[in-house]
Amino acid sequence: MTAACEALDQAPALTSAEMATLRDRVKSSNVNDTSFLATDYLNHFNEIIMLMEMVPSMPDCLEDAMEWRPKSYQEHFRDSGLGDADLTIMAYENAPASYREPFDMLVTEMNERIAAGLHILESKISAGAMESLDAWNEKILQDLNGRIERLSAIINATAPANSQDEVDSLFAD
Predict the structure, then answer these.
(1) Do the beta carbons of residue 157 and residue 150 sit within 8 Å?
(2) Is residue 5 a part of any domain in this protein?
(3) Are 4 and 11 in contact (CB under 8 A)?
(4) What whole-number distance in Å separates Cα of residue 142 and Cα of residue 139?
(5) Looking at the domain assignment, is residue 1 inside a domain?
(6) What is the pLDDT of residues 134-152, one digit of tens each?
(7) In a domain, 49, yes or no
(8) Which of 6, 13, 23, 83 lies most in the core, judged by the most C-beta atoms within 10 Å?
(9) Is residue 8 part of a domain?
């Protein structure tokens, strides 16, 4: 079981009245009242994507990009300074599994792809392979931007929610 799934299992379940109250509270916040997720989390990924976009024309930006570290949803909002960070975290922790599980899996994939992409860029620059740097960077960015679009669709509840069977199959060995 992944850490994300374990966290879901450990989160105390809200009563139906508490869920209704939470749903009402998120309606006046930056949290989607269907998915219980917030698009502000995407800023964490947009930051590294912007840095990676600059690397081919300014290879020195790779040093800044290499300092980027993944942050969990909760870490991002705790560090954000947003006034409704606690509500945003509470909503995430009570998000429907049909949104939260594919979201968490995609976040994990993003973190892995970013690390791999940075490694490739670092290798290309170290080897002096500047002629292929643009092409590799374009592939990496295209992949990451596609995943950002999918995350956004999940957050905004415009992507179809997975059935429980589909979610379970994602975690099958």
Answers:
(1) no
(2) no
(3) no
(4) 5
(5) no
(6) 888 999 999 999 999 999 9
(7) yes
(8) 23
(9) no
